[in-house]
Specification:
By secondary structure, the protein is mainly alpha-helical. It has one domain. The chain contains 5 helices and no strands. The protein is elongated, with a radius of gyration of 19 Å. 7% of the residues are buried.
Length: 95
């Protein structure tokens, strides 16, 4: 028997392919950021595949948001570590 519903991966890749003209119109910086967002979608394919009846964009957006949140958490950790080092060195006074 054949598959009646296209795979999640195939559906997402089709959506990404439709975005190629949009990507071409972006500035270099925006293009790099856009590629990072698409990487986040591809990195979370297994989770997106758990919602096969859903339209492609909901899991895609969730994957992009999770990727952005992950980068924010890493930056927060680095900032906290820097503040701790500056406080320990007496350069920063946090009261």
């Amino acid at each position: 028997m054949g598959r009646t519903v296209p795979t999640w991966r195939g559906r997402v890749e089709q959506e990404i392919e439709r975005l190629v003209p949009y990507r071409r119109a972006l500035s270099l910086d925006d293009c790099c950021n856009f590629d990072m967002m698409l990487h986040d979608v591809r990195a979370r394919r297994a989770a997106g595949g758990m919602l096969p009846a859903q339209e492609e964009w909901k899991p895609m957006f969730l994957s992009m948001l999770l990727g952005a949140h992950q980068r924010i958490r890493v930056l927060e950790g680095r900032l906290e570590e820097l503040e701790r080092q500056l406080t320990d060195a007496g350069v920063l006074d946090v009261r």
